[in-house]
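Chain entry —
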Amino acid sequence: MKTTKQLAAAVLATLGALAFSGTLLSASDVDDRIEAAAKKTYVFKTVLKDDDIKTVSKDGIVVLTGTVADTGHRTLAETTVESLPGVVSVDNRLMLKNADEPEHSDAWLTAKVKTTLLFHRHVSASATDVYVKDGIVSLRGTASSSAQIELVTEYARDIEGVKSVVNEMTIATAEAPKPRTASEKFDDASVTAQVRLVLASHRSTSSVRTVVLTRDGVVTLTGIAKNNAEKSLVTKLVEGVHGVDKVVNGMTIAIPVAGN
């Protein structure tokens, strides 16, 4: 928890950083920019477009209210906003539309798989139908190749709570990728949020202590990995996230504890 002095220092630092033209921005100007920037992010314009989210900033402290589809969207909104310039902290008061759905239930897993696939650029979430029964995920729809089918299976299987995956997808003729619209342009806050959610969603990397920073599409990772294999897996997953142009993995390998 940050102290009052720390919060004040963070706001002052932000004001200084934003004074590009030589004219110091007021705290209200910074707050207005934060609220506007949140709405313009790729995440808010695409993944969270059907959710009802209100963003209010006061002295860099952002309060999120409204309703979202699931816990993944709730976390994604918070992670995106806290990565924006000028944000000191985020008070996440978002409520779930289906708050009665317990974690790891079939409905919860369905939403989790669909959301996770959205972040990976080497698969098509829109062409993948997801059904879950007693923790067993069935995938239907179309893919561009057998490699893509295998990748969808791999991603779904690695989500916490999934018992097994039955992939019934078929291969369809690949279409030329469409140019991105203005609402689909990637911003660094959205990239950071997606990367953090991907690493948290996959059980293979959910416990990895990773710090994510993005600048102009270049993602820098720091933190601790158990071994080189885990570090390589983190790099592989991050490279496949929408909006990532390059990954610089500066994670260190944990020193084994004697006797383990």
In short: The CA atoms of residues 63 and 165 lie 38 Å apart. The chain is about 35% helix and 25% strand. The chain has three domains: 19-96, 106-171, 182-253. The first strand starts at residue 52 and ends at 58.
